[in-house]
Write a structure and sequence with these properties.
2 domains, three-stranded antiparallel beta sheet, flat, 254 residues
């Protein structure tokens, strides 16, 4: 699972899976769906900070080692649903405001209720927290060097690993064409909590496989041997939450 701060929580495909008419409506009404996704994520960020601060007030010892910030929030299914439904609500709110069409109002209200349902489930189940969050990696620097790798086009990605062996989300793949040589992979500066990294290589961006037998140090280079590993672990989408923290329901005195 990705971190909330890794990038978009939901994509347009997630929205169209919930509403097959979305793209037609957006095209007809001139609505930028990508912009609505970004705005919904901004709104969720504010909401999450409010919920995290409730945890801080309810359990002071909980925050002795973990500060209430978005960097440690993991995108769980409930959070993803919340973002998806809120984005759809925003699209249909704009569509209704443009045409005052009751059909759009119905969709707006429907997705508002679904967003509230997802928010409530997140509160009940808990916010996913990673105690040693590892952010998504930047694309590695890949260069051609002398070697015996088979000629062809290769796709390369990497992911950072923390001291607990938890791997963050993998980078956008880099592409390189090799002729009479091999490839060398260099990671960028390590983010906080990262102690090592893994290299994934394949002939197809959908079929990259872990190549290094053990995690590489932050300053290490990966030089691809002549034999490409073609079976094994594929790059992941990020670390699982260390735990889920339900939001207490309380009335503050004062």
């Amino acid at each position: 699972m990705a971190l909330f701060t890794d990038g978009p929580v939901s994509l347009i495909d997630d929205l169209t899976a919930q509403d097959s008419q979305l793209l037609d409506v957006a095209s007809t009404e001139g609505i930028d769906v990508s912009r609505k996704l970004a705005l919904a994520q901004d709104d969720l960020g504010v909401e999450l900070l409010v919920l995290l601060n409730k945890l801080r007030f309810a359990d002071q010892t909980f925050w002795l080692t973990t500060a209430p910030n978005l960097d440690s929030v993991v995108v769980t299914p409930a959070l993803k649903f919340w973002h998806t439904y809120l984005s759809l609500e925003m699209v249909y709110r704009d569509a209704y405001n443009s045409q005052l069409n009751d059909r759009y109002a119905g969709k707006r209200d429907q997705f508002h209720e679904m967003a509230e349902w997802a928010r409530e489930k997140l509160i009940q189940i808990g916010i996913g927290i990673a105690t040693r969050p590892v952010p998504i990696a930047s694309s590695p620097v890949v260069t051609a060097i002398p070697g015996g790798l088979a000629d062809g086009t290769y796709y390369v990605t990497m992911a950072w690993v923390n001291a607990c062996g938890e791997e963050g989300a993998s980078a956008v793949p880099a592409m390189i064409t090799i002729a009479a040589g091999t490839l060398q992979v260099q990671a960028g500066p390590p983010p906080e909590n990262a102690t090592a990294w893994n290299a994934y290589v394949g002939n197809d961006p959908a079929a990259m496989i872990l190549q290094n037998p053990a995690p590489l140090g932050p300053g290490d280079l990966w030089q691809q041997p002549a034999e490409l590993v073609t079976a094994g672990r594929a790059p992941g989408t990020g670390q699982d939450p260390t735990y889920l923290k339900p939001i207490p329901r309380m009335i503050q005195r004062g």
